[in-house]
Amino acid sequence: TGMFTFDPGFTSTASCESGLTFIDGGEGILLHRGYPIDQLAEQSSFMEVAYLLLNGELPSPGEFDDFQYTITRHTMVHEQLKTLYNGFRRDAHPMAIMCGVVGALSAFYHDSTDITDPVQRKIASHRLIAKMPTIAAMAYKYSIGQPFLYPENSISYTGNFLRMTFGVPAEPYEVNPVVEKAMDRIFILHADHEQNASTSTVRLAGSSGANPFACIAAGIACLWGPAHGGANEAALNMLHEIGTPDKIPEYIARAKDKEDPFRLMGFGHRVYKNFDPRAKVMKETAAEVLETLGVDDPIFDVARELEQIALNDEYFIEKKLYPNVDFYSGVILSAIGFPTTMFTALFALARTVGWVAQWNEMISDPEQRIGRPRQLYTGPTMRDYVPLGSR
Ligand code: CMC
């Protein structure tokens, strides 16, 4: 490979040093700052995980109060931003709106685009985390033609998001604690995942000195793809397409057929080759939510049966393909009432915490340089230009 290491898809290249997240794909281990994901998902909260990822340690009660106070002080978006929404078609995909609106934040918060100032970097980080629920909820409200709701700072981050999404000005909105807990857990499970495609995109964009709002917009664009964050939407659409358990073998056969581009969405992972620890928590949460809400969704049965059949199929065993975080999240989100088009926007909301933490880590790294991969050139060798008339 000449001067360079050839590593398409970066399967064996470490692009940075990072102290945030540890993954052991063989053992199915995921740690944030050393803490196992299942303990965080079961005992912590999304805001606490956000603090942990940003600051390196769990907060003391006082630090946690201050952090939550700071975040709630940034939940509103500039009033002028509303007009940006009005420029979109009502049937615009929420991810298209998110790319545009988050990118546009740099035009509204000029002060925190100065990445050389650590204080401004912190403010930009808090702004992004705080405004994401407002921005995502507004995308939803716009799509269904209901008025935008302002944030309500006396309730939790996640409760407030549910209220801005499902509430209406005409009546008070009661946050269902089971739904709030499940939503918060989904956010925790999506908060960070080391150098995945969208996080690497954020780092690469940030390595040139681009402002944090532009970098997160780049991350959102990358996350949208069905091989990445778009898989949660694609997985639920697939389960609906399968519809009934008797159709499962047909789809399993298609997934195994190399002539057919179809893949089982929500299955397989670049790093996890044993199981995805997030999927385990997600499956349990799906069962809890469906039971509490009294939702009898046949799609959950299709999902469980599909998982069983695939886990016992030679192809999936040999290729080490297991359900990933996106396989069961859609079942929960639709039971809560989200349309499939919102699924990836919710992933973006949660992953903003990881993106922002990784971006801060990169900017503060003294070794940080612009990310500039090389290539193996496969084009023509040098040749002489032929004028148009002589071709
Ligand atoms: N269904 C059927 N076959 C699959 C699947 C699948 N879901 N995933 C991988 N394979 C096969 C693939 O065809 C290939 O076979 P062969 O060796 O014969 O060519 C082999 O398994 C290895 O796949 P790969 O594409 O080389 O693996 P990768 O590490 O590049 O891709 C992946 C990982 C997650 C993109 C892939 O498994 C996939 O496309 N899964 C479906 C989409 C999905 O659920 N994505 C969410 C990932 S987790 C959350 C997130 O990152 O956002």
TrEMBL record:
It catalyses: oxaloacetate + acetyl-CoA + H2O = citrate + CoA + H(+). One of its GO terms (molecular function) is citrate synthase activity. CDD domains: EcCS_like. It holds the Pfam family Citrate_synt. It comes from the Bacteria. SUPFAM superfamilies: Citrate synthase (SSF48256). Keywords: Acyltransferase, Membrane, Transferase, Transmembrane, Transmembrane helix, Tricarboxylic acid cycle. The active site is at H269, D326. One of its GO terms (biological process) is tricarboxylic acid cycle. The chain crosses the membrane at residues 327-350. PANTHER family: CITRATE SYNTHASE. This is Citrate synthase. It comes from Parasphingopyxis marina.
